[in-house]
Design a protein that fits this description.
- There is one protein chain.
- The chain is globular and about 85 Å long.
- It folds into three domains: 86 residues, no CATH class; 88 residues, DNA polymerase, domain 1 (Orthogonal Bundle); 193 residues, Intergrase catalytic core (hpI Integrase, Chain A, Orthogonal Bundle), CATH 1.10.443.
- By secondary structure, the chain is mainly alpha-helical.
- The relative contact order is 0.09.
- Strand 3 and strand 4 form a beta hairpin.
- The protein has 20 helices and five strands.
- Keywords: DNA integration, DNA recombination, DNA-binding.
- It holds the Pfam family Phage_integrase.
- One of its GO terms (biological process) is DNA recombination.
- GO terms for molecular function: DNA binding.
- This is Site-specific integrase.
Length: 399
């Protein structure tokens, strides 16, 4: 079936010929085998290993062998590219910002800009990096800048300057190709032009939701659609910030562009999170925490990993995995939109339900804290209970 004799196939499986010389499995042979057998059966044939019994330690062992053995590495890369191509391409376009990177930037900007300008640039950069989780990808940068631009063009413009300089001066010397992709992923906003998101419907989001296969991505998309929060706010959410009994999400942000204090969760969603998602999440954390510690011990470059902080995250999964899983679900439905567009859908949905623009701004964290306080004290008296009632009656729900 693969156009090779039994003897040749046996040599491939054994890894060397009668003389003890290592053999190379041609890419076309790997492709034919993979087209006829599931990936787990291919791996079992090649390595005598049943993938149903795999552990994270096996993954570390495989990576270690791939680093030492050129032939095994070629096979590993061929299989990984075939099965995980989209995921690998996504993660290869990521830059993880370190403390040294930020300090290097601050030193550079202090030497080339006035004291006032450098202070402003540093403040905007630090805020942007915090919002982005200190991980830069072309998709995240583009989405983040569109989000800023939709809320405040001036803030978006002032944020773009230090980001561009950071990419050019700090990232480019280390990775020119990635720096080019990051630098060109967004433009410095000019004038008062605002991004216009596509019109999304509740039924369309329900279809995408039903097609999401990965549990962590499914939970993320559900909460995103039902709260209209910023994508970065959800990725950075911790367990302590989610009160399932009161069905409140405490965001507690207070700066120039991020105004959110609280958001709410539908009762059915709170039950679903408690009874289904948290169980899955706990199993995931317990399964990988020891491997994370071992990986940290074995790699000096990973010493900054804080496993306790990772354990406290409401979504302890790879952001790339979540985005890719949702993107694949969109593909199966036959649509494509940015996660940021879901925030616009939430506002549009509430407006169609007759909800006041002021309440929509409050629910989405757009109302400045001081303004909200003045409204409560003098013009617009509304309690948290009343606000939650509006949410429960008018906010979209995927189930």
């Amino acid at each position: 079936m693969i156009g090779k004799s039994r003897r040749t196939v046996y040599v491939y499986l054994r890894g060397h010929d009668e003389r003890g010389i290592r053999t190379h499995i041609p890419d076309e042979v790997v492709g034919k085998v993979m087209s006829m057998l599931p990936i787990d059966e291919v791996y079992e044939v090649l390595e005598g290993f049943n993938t149903k019994n795999y552990t994270p330690n096996d993954i570390i062992g495989i990576l270690s062998k791939a680093a030492r053995d050129p032939e095994f590495r070629n096979l590993f890369l061929a299989l990984a590219s075939k099965i995980l191509g989209d995921y690998l391409r996504g993660t290869s376009f990521k830059y993880v910002v370190t403390k040294d990177d930020v300090e290097h930037y601050e030193k550079l900007i202090s030497q080339t800009r006035s004291k006032v300008t450098s202070k402003e640039h540093i403040a905007y950069l630090r805020r942007a990096l915090a919002d982005l989780g200190y991980e830069l990808t072309p998709e995240k940068l583009k989405e983040y800048m569109l989000e800023l631009q939709s809320e405040n063009v001036n803030v978006a413009r002032h944020t773009s300057y230090p980001l561009k300089v950071f990419i050019k001066e700090i990232i480019r010397p280390r990775d020119p190709q990635l720096a080019f992709l990051l630098y060109t992923s967004f433009k410095t906003p000019k004038g008062k032009t605002r991004y216009k998101p596509p019109a999304l419907s509740l039924e369309l989001l329900k279809k995408v939701y039903s097609e999401i296969e990965e549990p962590g991505a499914k939970a993320y998309f559900r909460i995103l659609a039902e709260t209209g929060l910023r994508t970065g706010e959800l990725f950075g959410l911790t367990l302590e910030q989610v009160d399932l009994d009161r069905r409140i999400i405490y965001l507690m942000k207070d700066n120039q562009t991020k105004r959110a204090y609280i958001s709410f969760i539908h009762e059915k969603t709170a039950q679903w999170i408690r009874n289904w998602y948290l169980t899955y999440r706990e199993d995931f954390v317990n399964k990988y925490i020891m491997s994370l510690k071992k990986l940290k011990e074995a790699n000096k470059e990973l010493q900054d990993i804080d496993e306790e902080k990772w354990k406290s995250k409401f979504f302890p999964f790879s952001e790339d995995m979540i985005r890719e899983s949702i993107r694949q679900a969109m593909g199966r439905v036959g649509v494509e939109f940015r996660l940021y567009d879901v925030r616009s859908f939430f506002a549009s949905h509430l407006a169609k339900q007759g909800v006041s623009p002021l309440i929509i701004n409050i629910l989405q964290g757009r109302a400045p804290p001081q303004q909200f306080k003045i409204l409560q004290e003098h013009y617009f008296v509304i309690s948290m209970e009343e606000l939650q009632k509006v949410y429960e009656e008018k906010a979209p729900t995927l189930q």
